[in-house]
Design goal:
- By secondary structure, the protein is α/β, with parallel strands linked by helices.
- It has 2 domains: 60 residues, no CATH class; 222 residues, Alpha/Beta hydrolase fold, catalytic domain (Rossmann fold, 3-Layer(aba) Sandwich).
- The chain is built from 9 helices and 10 strands.
- The chain has an 8-stranded mixed sheet, sandwiched between helices. A two-stranded antiparallel sheet has the order 5-6.
- The longest helix is centred in the first third of the chain and has 19 residues.
- The protein is globular, with a radius of gyration of 23 Å.
- The termini are far apart.
């Protein structure tokens, strides 16, 4: 009887997986698989007994996933305790937990722009947290321009922003590792942030910055402490040339890294630079099962 019940349990788990494969959001990401309890398996009839009714009961008893995510729009203002509001890109209609990507803007830049660009790159699959920083005091009154202060304050704002995002969408934010992205000043700060917390930020895209503070030792420590992928994206030949050095050190530490460029177009993150990131995206998320390839996410 023990062998028969175990065989039935394997078949039953296969049925639950088959019923849940390909979630209703159409993203191709499977719903969470909920296996029947040990008590349910122990009390199930042998394969020789009619089992159709009991299988249906187990499937119907499985708790449903989160309701489809709803928000006021794809980009929302996110109150952050102790700091100015962040901007968040949300995966509208998601019925499962989605990973988080954080995006730090550059000097004299805007969080809204970062969220828009990264929403396009990722096809709106993850949550994207774009922190605001502090206003540029020298910007004309009619312009909405921001920068960042000391590293410690940036880290505190990022931590508070991640907590606020989870509190706002508790059923849909995945608690696992976060993808870090930053442009220019955001990348410069980001290279230091990810090295301090490799388990939280094992993958990073550093755009037009973040390549000067690496050394063989800290590249090795980042890899040994949990780092998994680093992608340097450039809009200028000087950036591409400079990024080759940390790529060499990271590769020596057995941490896959790349530098991509799509023309010598200037200090920017949109257009051809974004296209270069898209071209490397499947490589970048390889091995993290929470992320589908771009082919698995609808436009």
């Amino acid at each position: 009887m023990v062998r028969a019940s175990a065989g039935f349990g394997v078949a039953l788990i296969g049925l639950v997986i088959a019923c849940q494969k390909g979630g209703p959001n159409g993203s191709g990401a499977p719903e969470p698989i909920i296996a029947p309890s040990a008590a349910a398996l122990a009390s199930s009839p042998s394969p020789t007994a009619p089992a159709t009714g009991s299988m249906r009961e187990v499937v119907e008893a499985a708790p449903p996933g989160p309701a489809p995510l709803r928000a006021s729009g794809p980009l929302v203002d996110l109150p952050v305790s102790g700091f100015r509001d962040a901007v968040a890109s949300v995966p509208m209609g998601a019925t499962e937990r989605r990973p988080v990507l954080v995006a730090l803007h550059g000097n004299y830049d805007q969080p809204e722009s970062q969220c828009q660009v990264w929403r396009a790159i990722t096809r709106a699959f993850p949550f994207i947290l774009c922190t605001r920083g502090i206003p540029r005091a020298d910007a004309p009154k009619g312009e909405d321009r921001w920068t960042y202060g000391a590293l410690g304050k940036v880290e505190q704002e990022l931590e508070a922003g991640l907590k606020a995002l989870t509190a706002a969408f508790p059923d849909h934010v995945h608690p696992g590792p976060v993808v870090f992205t930053g442009f220019s000043l955001g990348a410069i700060l980001g290279a230091r942030i990810i090295r301090k917390d490799p388990e939280r930020y094992p993958r990073a895209v550093l755009v037009e910055g973040g390549y000067k503070s690496w050394a063989p030792g800290n590249a090795r420590k980042y890899a040994e402490a949990g780092g998994q992928r680093v992608l340097f994206a450039c809009g200028q030949a000087a950036c591409q040339h400079a990024a080759k050095t940390p790529v060499r050190w990271l590769d020596a530490a057995k941490l896959p890294s790349r530098v991509v460029i799509n023309g010598n177009i200037g200090h920017t993150y949109g257009g051809p630079v974004s296209e270069a990131i898209v071209g490397a995206w499947n490589w970048f998320v390889e091995g993290d099962e929470r992320w589908p390839t771009r082919a698995g996410v609808p436009d």
